[in-house]
Amino acid sequence: MTSEPTPAPSSLPTARLPERAAVVDLDAIRHNVGVLRQVADPARVMAVVKADAYGHGAVQVARAALAAGAAWLGVAHISEALALRAAGIEAPILAWLHTPDSNFSAAVAAGIDLGCSGWELDRIVAAAREQQRPARVHLKIDTGLGRNGATAERWDSLVGEAVEYQDEGLLRVVGVFSHLAVADEPHRPETDTQLDAFREAVAVAEDAGCDLEVRHIANSPAVFSRPDAHFDLVRVGISVYGLSPFPDQSSADLGLRPAMTLRATLSQAKRVRADQGVSYGLLYRTRDAATLALVPLGYADGVPRTSSGGPVQIAGETHRVAGRVAMDQVVVDLGPDPEPAALAGAEAVLFGTGDNGGPTADDWARAAGTINYEIVTRISPRVPRVYVGEGA
Ligand SMILES: *Cc1c(COP(=O)(O)O)cnc(C)c1O
């Protein structure tokens, strides 16, 4: 794996940062897209920017990813795709999760590619008639994940119906796609079964007369672990943000750079006596006299309340959250040594690049019993996003 030495996060302009910020390094996004292009080559890269780009900011990440050579953007909802178009982004965008209340007409009018599992087909065709413009459709086959997508039993008839509409000029079947269930566990056999089913579904569509632009099934883990899953296009989310999709491999192992740093200026630092209880429930007590630092980030900001002892770096050293995460704040026990006065205006980093042993989203995922995906995605709108790097 190519792994350049990781540069310092593009000179975080600490002095000008808001008191609480999720700093997003667009150079890291570009670097990661470059790595993914190399690994996926000759398949092309779809940067998945759903959920506000996993909390990083959809428009900014989309622009950086496209500048770095991503060919497509992917989102769950039509509303997310329309927001990208409204920001002036003209690249191909696929939206794949719909309900009968989704605005298919607006999607067709905006040139959004639409995933279709079956029931959407008539709605998409109605929208194409209304807009007098053929819809671009990616038919989805459920190869085993059991979420959306047509079942194998329904596939032939879905393809048949779509091709009829295609012959009427109402749509073009430009893609066939599916989603993997266990690609983050490369030893499991179900991925082979899913790939076999996928190849079969693609053959059915091609035999029926679909001239496919893209066949796609790979997510981030499959990009790294299953070259035979790359096909024409890979749909990558978490790896664009520099985080590893594997429990036993780090960002650095994959040549990726975490893009988001969650940090705040300390609210307070004070001396307390030994056996001082800390935070609701008094579940933590200081052992000796200690300096406590108050960090103004809590579960309203997306720090999981269920995390226990999450890491926080203050003045170059990593400590653990003492006691419960509150709505607005956490407390960190810095031990007996630091002088509170020396900590005025100091910065607390909950997670970031991981350089020099700093805390990572992976550490918080472990502390909270979840995955790094959730840690970054759940950072709430109360935390201002600040962009650094080229294009910020
Ligand atoms: C979210 C999503 C992806 C991206 O998955 P990562 O593991 O983050 O790379 C790809 N495809 C679909 C259908 C998704 O919902």
UniProtKB/TrEMBL annotation:
It catalyses: L-alanine = D-alanine. Keywords: Isomerase, Pyridoxal phosphate. Pfam families: Ala_racemase_C, Ala_racemase_N. The active site is at K50, Y280. Pathway: Amino-acid biosynthesis; D-alanine biosynthesis; D-alanine from L-alanine: step 1/1. Substrate binds at R147, M327. The modification N6-(pyridoxal phosphate)lysine is found at K50. Residues 259-388 form the Alanine racemase C-terminal domain. Belongs to the alanine racemase family. This is Alanine racemase. It comes from Sinomonas flava. The gene is alr.
